[in-house]
Amino acid sequence: MSKKSRNTKLLDAWSLVHLVTGAILGWIMDPFVALALMVLWEPLELLVLSPLLARRGIIFGYESLRNSLSDIVFNVIGVALGAGALTAVSIPPFHLF
Fold it and tell me: Can you give the residue range of the structural domain that contains 24?
């Protein structure tokens, strides 16, 4: 079995997921809380979940620091879009935190 290399891309399919998730969370909750949750997710994914799941043969969050930091950039952009543009267009159906 060959060893899979870490994802080092700045832009990948998950970038869109981070952007959209950030926009939704920035729309339905305080932007600082949304951003804190999303930024804290990255080290949890990289340092805790990825190694634990790898022990069971599941490849998850197998990314480089470079990719993780780009995910955070897309989180920031998404939260800004959600808190700014999306909120200006439509009031969220509910608000968390």
Answer: 13-89
